[in-house]
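User: I'm new to structure prediction. If I give you an amino acid sequence, what do you actually give back? Let's try with this one:
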Amino acid sequence: MIRPLLAAFLLIAVATPKCGDSSSSDGSSAPLMNFQSIVVNAGPTNNYFNGAFTSVTLCAPGTSTCQTIGGILVDTGSSGLRLLNDSLTLSLPQQTDSSGAPVAECFPFVDGYTWGAVKSADIKMGGEQASSVPIQVIASPGLPAIPASCTSFGTAENTLDSLGANGILGVGLFREDCGPGCVNIGSSNPGLYYSCPSAGCASISQSLARQVLNPVALFSTDNNGVVIQFPSLPAGGSATATGTMVFGIGTQSNNGLGSAKVFTVDAQGNLSTSYGSQTYGGSYLDSGSNGIFFLDANTTGLPVCTTSTDFYCPSTLQSQSATIRGINGANSAVNFNVGNADTLNGRFTAFSEVAGPNPGSFDWGLSFFFGRTVFTAIEGQSTPGGVGPYFAF
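Assistant: Good question. You get back a string of structure tokens that encode the predicted 3D arrangement of the chain. For your 393 residues, that looks like this:
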């Protein structure tokens, strides 16, 4: 087993969705187009588990020259689209700085980083479109060597084998992938963006509009968030699982909040989680993580696997309970199971009982999403549950 992806580097800065009809402005019936399927399967490498994949259609900006790419991991823990260069057949315009040098980005995740050029594309999903969106093209050719300040983030995830997907679709809480921290150069800048003339890459400031952007926030409608829904899974897992990603919150008949509870987050997009007699900050809901990663073996009493060392391996299924709390005081008890990751059915790809250690915090990954409808509201956008950012379930 591997732990392919965890939540993104922290930014600086229920009603069940149903497919159906909706009345248009002239009273006629028109099919809803603000959603698309997501599926948990083995992914493009054929060895992934608990990865929620979808497809994205890209077009050269302002043209009908387009390409649809599958095997894209859906990630509520980051913002922005990142694609492996090897998955692209389109020629996309390169972003440049004031001197004409290409702009690149080093984007850190908990378990590594992606490096590549910032380019622009029109993005189409589920009947929605965002135009001229800055994206990251991972391992794009023609750039100088990756700077040491980037490689210091850990393991490079710039190939299909290391990334486990053709790309990552970040549909998280924020409009930009870095935010105000990257706007001004200096000690507070996390150093994600680079100017890359042939002599080598140097860290630069990057305005909000030129950062890699959450494409959902740029849709003309249904642009205030996403709703992700998966069915419950049987004990022991399932060969695959099919869910739905709906765009917008409270904008159509298929994305109402209903009885979902709103949990507001702090400036970094975090909640808190209480477990036992302790409360832990830095918690988040992240569909891009392939398990529930929480605390450590000494705290939980759960043994770590001897083979799959990123996961827990109790000898029998263990029932756990924790309480998620929002900054607004909303709270909800969450009951979940932890199984033995070393003995999972190798023919299956979807499991609700996969969990592993994450000292001092809770990463509520894809295991949490099974059997739930989870809303992710984008910062600054109005919704029936208030102005984002927040999670709701």
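You can read the tokens as a compact description of the fold. Here is one thing that stands out. Residues 256 and 383 are 10 Å apart (CA to CA).
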